[in-house]
Amino acid sequence: MPTKPDLIDVRDLSVHFGLRGGTLGRLVGRDAGVVRAVDGISVTLREGEVLGLVGESGSGKSTFGRALLGLAPATSGTIGFDGADLTSMSRSELRALRQSIQMVFQDPSAALNPSMTVAEAVGDALRVHGMKSSVERRERVVEALERVGLSPVQLFLDKYPRDLSGGQKQRVVLARAIVMGPRVLVADEPISMLDMSVRAKILQLMLDLKQDLGLSYVYITHDLASAKFFCDRIAIMYLGRIVEIGDTEEIFANPRHPYTKALLRAAPDPDPARAVAKDLPRGEVPDAAVPPLGCSFHPRCPEAVAQCGWEARDLRTLLETHWTRRTPEEYDAESAAVGSLDALARPDTSVHVGRGGADAVRSILDRIRDEEPDEPLWRGVADVTDDGAGVRVDFHPGVDPALRRAGGVDVACVLYPDDSPDDSAGG
Amino acid sequence: MAALRRVLRALATPFTQTAGLGRWMLVIGLVITGIFVLLAIFAPWIAPYGFAQASADGVDFPKAGAPSGEHWFGTDRLLFDVMSRTIWGARTAIEVVILSILICVVIGVPLGLVSGYYGGWLDRVLLLVMDALFAFPSFLLAIVFSFLLTDLFGGSVLAVAMSLSAIYIPQYYRVVRNTTVSAKEATYVEAARAIGAKDGVIMRRYLFGNVIQSVPVIGTLNAADAILTLAGLGFLGLGIQSTDAAEWGHDLNRALADAGAGVWWTGLYPGLAIVLLVTGLTLVGEGLNETLNPTLRKRRLLPVVMTTREDR
C-alpha cells in the first residue's frame, strides 16, 4: 500500500474527566477519582484516508473525536496537525484551526440551532471566521448546499431545521462542515440516527465529498457493517484504548484480538442457519473510573490466560454469578461461609476470602470450579492457601499489553507475543 | 416582504394557537391595554386640558367642582381637571412601565445568559445577589430604590422606572439563566464551538434566540405588577410630583381627604384607571402564558370511542 503523508499524528493521547462524587464529596471538595475516557492512544490519520474508530458505547471513541477538535481537553499526549501540536494551542488558535478540522454530529436534529435558517446555520461557519460580506457568504452557502445534494437550493435556504427530514438535516450539517473547506472531517456516528433508507445515501455522499474535496475522515461508529463499507483502516477501541488497528480487509478477514472477534460475531447475520453460534462477550463494559488490571478486556474475554491481569473483583463477579444459580438455602449456607464480599471490591492480586473456615471456603471454590472448569479465571489463580478463617487467593501478576505487530495489523493482546518490536515502529 | 409576513404570522400565533378561555383572555386584555396605550400616545389631543392646568381663557376652574359638561370627571382641590389628569396619567404609567421593562430586559437577560453560560463563581455570586433581592419584600425594595434614585435623578419618570426595574430584574435573570443552563448542553452549542465560534457569538446567535421565549410572558405579567407598584409609590408621595406629570397613585393620595367630604370623583377615576389597566395587562400575560407555555396549553382531545363488544 502506498504510504501517504500523515495528516494527524496522535501520540499517547489521554483525556481524563474528574468525577465529582456525591453531594458531601462535592461540598468538601473531595476528589472522587477520574474516568479515563481516552487512555493513551497513538494513531495516525493519513492524507485522503478514512480511519474508522469502532467500539461499544463507553469505549471513548466520541471523546477521542472531540479531542481531535480540541473540544475535549487532552490530559496528556500530543495531537500533531500540520506540524503543530493541538493540545498546546490557545483558544483562538484552536478556533482558527477549526477551518481545517470539522465535525459531523450524530443527531442532526440536535446539531442545528432551531432558531436559525439553513442559510444562516451554514453561513454562520463563514461568519465566525470573519467573512463579513453577506453576498459572498450566500454564494459559498449555495455552493456548499449544492454539493451536499440539497437542490434546488432556493427551496432550502430559508427553511428552519424543523421543516426538514432527518436526511436533509444531516446534509445541512455536512454542508456546514465543508463550507470552510476543511481537510479533515470527524464524523461521530453520522448515520446512526437516520432511517435505513437514507444511511447509504449519506455514506455515498460522504465518499463523493472525499473524492471531490480531497477530505480525510475519522469515522466513529459502533456499526461494523458501515465501517467495512466506508473505512480504509479500522481501529477497534475498548475502554479508552485501541486494542486492534489495521486495514479493513485484514481486520474483517482475520480478527486477532478476542474483542474484535466478539464484535464481529455479535454483528447480526442474515443467514438464519448461522445465527446460533454467538458467544457474545459476557457482562458489561467495566467502570472506566477503576478499569480492570492488566488487559481491560480480560473479565469478558473467552480466551484469557494466566497473565491477563486477574484480580479480586473478577472473583467477586464469579461468586455472584454462581449464586444467581443457587437456591436460597444453598445461597444462605455458602454466603455464610464466604462472608462479606466487600473485601473483593478493590483491584488486588492477593485477597483474603471467607470467615467460615478454610475448608468450607475451599470446598465452595472447588465446587464452582468443577461446575465450569473452562472458566478463564482459574487460569489466573496462582495459589490458594489457608489463611485464618478463610483462604488467601493469589493471582498471577497481570501484564498490560501494548499494541504490537501481529500479521498485517497491530493488536494489544498477550496472545500475540511481542516478538518484533522494530517492525511496529515502521507502521 | 417575506420577513414582514413572517413577523405578522408570528404576531398572530397567540390567536391561532389558542382556543376558548385563553383566547378570550388575550383578546379582552389586548383591547383594554390597547385603549390605554392609545390614550397615552394621543393624550395631548384627547385630554381636554393639560395635566397641571388650573384655568382656561383666564378663568379659574372651580375648586373640587362636581362633574359637569365643562369638566366631565369634575375638578380637584388644586383646580386640576380630573379627566385630563386621568388621561395624562395613562401616559406616565405606560412610559414608566415600558422603560422599566426595557431596563429589566437590557440588564437581566445578558446577566442571565452570561451567568448560565459560564457558570462557576460568577454564577454563584450573581445568584446570591439576585436571590437576596428576590427575598426582600418587593415594595420595600422599590421604596428604598426610589429614595436613592430620586436623590440622583430628581422625581423623574426615569428614576421611578429604574427603581421598579430593580425589583423585577431578578425574575428575568432567573428565567434566562435557568434556560441557558439547560440550553448550553445542547449539541448545537457544541456544534457552534466546533465551527470555531467565540463564546460571545454562541451566546448572541445560538443561545439568545432560544432562551428569550419566556421573556414576553414575564414582561406582561410584570407590567401589571409594575403599575400597582408605581401607584403605590405615588400614593406614598415618592416618585413623580403632580406638577411634573399626572400620576394616578399621587392623585389617589390627594383624593384621600376628599372622600370624607363627599367628593367622590377625584378618587374614583384614577382608581378605576389603575384597576382597568392592571386587569388588561394581567389578562394579556395569562393569555400569552397559556399560549406560549406548553405545560399549560390545553389541547383538545377527542373522546376515544370503542366499538361495542359482542356478547358471547
Automatic annotation (TrEMBL), chain A:
<comment type="similarity">
    <text>Belongs to the ABC transporter superfamily.</text>
</comment>
<dbReference type="GO" id="GO:0015833">
    <property type="term" value="P:peptide transport"/>
</dbReference>
<dbReference type="InterPro" id="IPR027417">
    <property type="entry name" value="P-loop_NTPase"/>
</dbReference>
<keyword id="KW-0067">ATP-binding</keyword>
<dbReference type="InterPro" id="IPR003593">
    <property type="entry name" value="AAA+_ATPase"/>
</dbReference>
<dbReference type="GO" id="GO:0016887">
    <property type="term" value="F:ATP hydrolysis activity"/>
</dbReference>
<dbReference type="GO" id="GO:0055085">
    <property type="term" value="P:transmembrane transport"/>
</dbReference>
<dbReference type="GO" id="GO:0005524">
    <property type="term" value="F:ATP binding"/>
</dbReference>
<dbReference type="InterPro" id="IPR013563">
    <property type="entry name" value="Oligopep_ABC_C"/>
</dbReference>
<keyword id="KW-0547">Nucleotide-binding</keyword>
<dbReference type="InterPro" id="IPR003439">
    <property type="entry name" value="ABC_transporter-like_ATP-bd"/>
</dbReference>
<dbReference type="InterPro" id="IPR050319">
    <property type="entry name" value="ABC_transp_ATP-bind"/>
</dbReference>
<feature type="domain" description="ABC transporter">
    <location>
        <begin position="10"/>
        <end position="264"/>
    </location>
</feature>
<dbReference type="Pfam" id="PF08352">
    <property type="entry name" value="oligo_HPY"/>
</dbReference>
<keyword id="KW-0813">Transport</keyword>
<dbReference type="Pfam" id="PF00005">
    <property type="entry name" value="ABC_tran"/>
</dbReference>
<protein>
    <submittedName>
        <fullName>ABC transporter ATP-binding protein</fullName>
    </submittedName>
</protein>
<dbReference type="InterPro" id="IPR017871">
    <property type="entry name" value="ABC_transporter-like_CS"/>
</dbReference>
UniProtKB/TrEMBL annotation, chain B:
<keyword id="KW-0472">Membrane</keyword>
<protein>
    <submittedName>
        <fullName>ABC transporter permease</fullName>
    </submittedName>
</protein>
<feature type="transmembrane region" description="Helical">
    <location>
        <begin position="21"/>
        <end position="47"/>
    </location>
</feature>
<keyword id="KW-0812">Transmembrane</keyword>
<dbReference type="GO" id="GO:0005886">
    <property type="term" value="C:plasma membrane"/>
</dbReference>
<keyword id="KW-1133">Transmembrane helix</keyword>
<dbReference type="Pfam" id="PF12911">
    <property type="entry name" value="OppC_N"/>
</dbReference>
<keyword id="KW-1003">Cell membrane</keyword>
<feature type="domain" description="ABC transmembrane type-1">
    <location>
        <begin position="90"/>
        <end position="285"/>
    </location>
</feature>
<dbReference type="InterPro" id="IPR025966">
    <property type="entry name" value="OppC_N"/>
</dbReference>
<keyword id="KW-0813">Transport</keyword>
<feature type="transmembrane region" description="Helical">
    <location>
        <begin position="93"/>
        <end position="113"/>
    </location>
</feature>
<dbReference type="InterPro" id="IPR050366">
    <property type="entry name" value="BP-dependent_transpt_permease"/>
</dbReference>
<dbReference type="InterPro" id="IPR035906">
    <property type="entry name" value="MetI-like_sf"/>
</dbReference>
<dbReference type="InterPro" id="IPR000515">
    <property type="entry name" value="MetI-like"/>
</dbReference>
<dbReference type="GO" id="GO:0055085">
    <property type="term" value="P:transmembrane transport"/>
</dbReference>
<comment type="similarity">
    <text>Belongs to the binding-protein-dependent transport system permease family.</text>
</comment>
<feature type="transmembrane region" description="Helical">
    <location>
        <begin position="125"/>
        <end position="146"/>
    </location>
</feature>
<feature type="transmembrane region" description="Helical">
    <location>
        <begin position="152"/>
        <end position="169"/>
    </location>
</feature>
<dbReference type="Pfam" id="PF00528">
    <property type="entry name" value="BPD_transp_1"/>
</dbReference>
